[in-house]
Design a protein that fits this description.
single chain; about 230 residues; alpha/beta; Rossmann fold; seven-stranded mixed β-sheet
Length: about 230
């Protein structure tokens, strides 16, 4: 598979998930003259273990990260305290509609070659909600005017190490040349990264990328579950 001039659409439950899960893939697609669009579903003001989420601070971080990564377009769907971390109580149809057609960067508008969605092997209910909606939105369709993304990839992140489900990668992307770009982007999400030895520390993300790299004999990699690959 070549990433040259491909269009990548990343579905990110919250700002920072897109970099944690596929920051290297994003950088690689951009370096190979492709386009990248990101749909972020929710952000809000909420106290968190080890920190807090503030909408104003996180939206400023998003601007910095998206500019640094050279993303072609992004959208935060819900900036609402009553929805952030509560996507699982929304009607799934509403989330499907966002992914299929209602977002500025929906499937039917950007016509992606690759769509990357969060893993179901996660303890976060928002991630589970986005996965289920995305999986339905990516179903095989033959109706004229509806897009079938040729590649459907499910990304992981370090948080997935604490889960009752298993993540079974069958698709790897060599990000050896883009690991530092990923790490720099994560550092711009200052409010969300944690100190060592937290799972979400910069050092742990780097180690995890190197571990995945060792599985395919490269310096660093991102691992995915591939649900569709058309060539």
């Amino acid at each position: 598979m070549t990433l040259s001039k491909k269009t990548l659409l990343v579905l990110s439950p919250h700002p920072d998930d897109e970099i944690l899960g596929c920051g290297g893939l994003i950088a690689k697609v951009k370096n190979m003259n492709g386009k990248v669009f990101v749909i972020m579903f929710a952000v809000g003001n909420v106290k968190q273990i080890g920190g807090e989420s503030r909408t104003d601070a996180r939206t400023k971080e998003v601007e910095k990260v998206m500019e640094y990564m050279g993303v072609d377009g992004y959208e935060i769907i819900f900036m609402n305290d009553d929805i952030h971390l509560k996507l699982d109580v929304m009607p799934r149809k509403d989330l499907i509609d966002i992914i299929e057609s209602k977002s500025r960067f929906s499937l039917n508008k950007v016509n992606p070659d690759i769509i990357a969605v969060p893993s179901l092997a996660c303890q976060n209910q928002d991630h589970e909600a986005v996965f289920h909606a995305a999986f339905t939105a990516c179903r095989p369709r033959v109706k004229k005017g509806l897009n079938n993304a040729p590649a459907v990839l499910v990304y992981e992140q370090v948080d997935n190490l604490w889960t009752s489900r298993s993540f079974k990668p069958n698709f790897y992307v060599d990000i050896s040349d883009y690991l530092e770009t990923k790490i720099k982007a994560l550092s711009l999400y200052e409010s969300q990264m944690r100190e060592e030895p937290n799972l979400r520390s910069i050092e742990n993300v780097k180690r995890f990328s190197q571990l995945r790299g060792s599985e395919i004999c490269v310096e660093a990699a991102e691992a995915f579950e591939c649900h569709r690959f058309t060539c």
